[in-house]
Write a structure and sequence with these properties.
With about 425 residues, the chain is an alpha/beta fold. The protein contains 13 helices and 18 strands. Strands 1, 11, 12, 13, 14, 15, 16, 17 and 18 form a nine-stranded mixed sheet that branches. A hairpin with an 8-residue loop joins strand 14 (about 345-355) and strand 15 (about 360-370). The longest helix is centred in the middle third of the chain and has 20 residues, at about 220-240. The N and C termini lie far apart (about 85 Å). The protein binds pyridoxal-5'-phosphate. Pyridoxal-5'-phosphate binds next to helix 11. It comes from Halolamina salifodinae.
């Protein structure tokens, strides 16, 4: 069928198939980003829900038989949750706050999962209350204690068992969860706990999550985790415990470096199916980063340029309080100067530094970039995942706004008044120095 034969344009069809495997920083339209920065100020997160849609579709094409849950903590804007759900994904939540967001976004309880990691009492109280109204929601627990605490609250609904598979993976030691005793019940304890859940709750299967950043290189770790989960599922089945779902977690990587290849989703899917083997239940995955990373960029403006002997330091209005990943994980994010003609300037070693008095407050260090000038607008790539979500008000700095490519506000900018809004009220009579002891 040709492009003008009635089922939409070639672009529409490409979008239905999931669009390009990756959206690079250079693919974002420079003029649009500049006008958004002019209109909304900087720092500013720009997010494109259309790209979320494409990423969901590629996942569904690669994993047609799996239950796909979007790990909401990567980007919790209502529009993101709704877009992912529209595309057929369920929503995996890491806290009471995320469960609340998902339910308020209209996601039906049967498509909401709460993964409890050392859950605070208030989280369990909230989620068990929510379950009374949405009895189809699923809770995932990874410790006998958590199961006790749910039972004490009267919960007897859908409960999934988190397993510590003994293998982990990730782009940085701080995101490897799979082997750490903090997460999940050991494989040796799993049969007893599963039997207990099957007796007192609706056993909703098993779950494991290796960590973040599966790439072509560590597919072996992923394979090993999936293999162990498949074996466990078969063991449980043969002891008479049906396993509805085998959830092998998220962690699908994205190329942060401009020259890194896109993740080969089909290869991951093939490896997953092969390692899983025959199971009675359904495979589930929980990607977060993969769904939203390349759907967002951060815009920031240069305010100070300093020629240091060994590099040029470009001071900008975004920093570790806006985008924490470089400071926390030594993460690499592509940086692009959006000014007209910037690429004609000489390239120098540039360090992009934020306004916080911490050495870690750098978005990049000694990176070859066009010599920055005061007022330049810079874009930071792959900021859609764990960007806005990890922003803080450290240094009493308001968090930035986040808008869509079309200019709609997803979250307004905080003001200085917002930053101190939780402080105790000011005393009604001002105190002078003399009053103090
Ligand atoms: C964070 C998390 C995910 C998503 O990880 P990504 O690296 O963003 O894909 C999935 N499952 C669990 C339990 C998580 O904690």
């Amino acid at each position: 069928m040709s492009a003008d034969e009635g089922d939409g344009s070639a672009d529409d069809r490409a979008a239905a198939e999931g669009g390009p495997t990756v959206r690079r920083l250079a693919d974002w339209d420079r003029k649009t980003l500049r006008s958004l920065a002019d209109e909304h100020g900087t720092p500013l997160y720009v997010f494109d829900p259309a790209r979320v849609r494409e990423n969901c579709r590629r996942l569904e094409n690669a994993f047609p038989d799996a239950e796909i849950q979007y790990a909401a903590k990567a980007h919790t804007a209502r529009e993101t949750l709704q877009t992912a759900h529209d595309e057929g994904l369920a929503i995996e939540c890491a806290s009471a706050g995320e469960v609340r967001r998902a339910l308020r976004a209209g996601i039906p309880g049967q498509h909401v999962t709460y993964t409890a990691v050392n859950p605070p009492a208030a989280d369990l109280d909230y989620v068990v209350d929510a379950w009374r109204e949405h009895p189809d929601l699923t809770i995932t627990a990874g410790a006998a204690d958590t199961i006790d605490r749910l039972e004490e609250r009267g919960f007897d609904g859908r409960l999934r068992l988190r397993i510590n598979p003994g293998v982990g993976a990730g782009h940085h030691e701080k995101v490897v969860t799979g082997g750490h005793p903090k997460f999940g019940a050991g494989l040796d304890r799993a049969p007893d706990l599963a039997a207990r859940i099957a007796e007192s709750f609706a056993f909703a299967g098993i779950h494991a999550h290796a960590g973040s950043g599966i790439s072509g290189d560590d597919l072996e770790d992923h394979r090993e985790l999936v293999r162990r989960m498949g074996d466990l599922a078969r063991d449980l089945e043969s002891s008479g415990i049906p396993v509805e779902t085998v959830d092998v977690g998220g962690g699908f990587g994205v190329p942060y470096r401009e020259d890194a290849p896109a993740l080969n989703l089909d290869a991951v899917a093939d490896a997953t199916r092969e390692a899983l083997g025959q199971i009675e239940g359904q495979l589930a995955i929980e990607p977060g980063r993969y769904v939203v990373a390349d759907a967002g960029v951060l815009l920031t403006r240069v305010n100070t340029v300093k020629e240091a002997p060994e590099m040029v330091v470009g001071g900008v209005d975004a920093g570790m309080t806006t985008l924490l990943r470089p400071a926390m994980y030594d993460a690499y994010h592509a940086v692009r100067n959006l000014e007209q003609g910037a690429s004609d300037r000489d390239a120098v070693g540039v360090t992009i530094a934020g306004p916080v008095c911490e050495t870690a407050d750098l978005l990049c260090e000694n990176r070859p970039l066009p010599r920055p000038a005061r007022g330049d607008l810079l874009a930071v790539g792959n900021a859609g995942a764990y960007g806005y979500e990890m922003a803080s008000t450290y240094n009493s700095r308001p968090r930035p706004a986040e808008v869509t490519l079309a200019g709609e506000t997803l979250r307004r900018a905080e003001t200085l008044a917002d930053v101190s809004r939780l402080d105790a009220p000011e005393p009604t009579t001002p105190r002078s120095h003399e009053d103090q002891p």
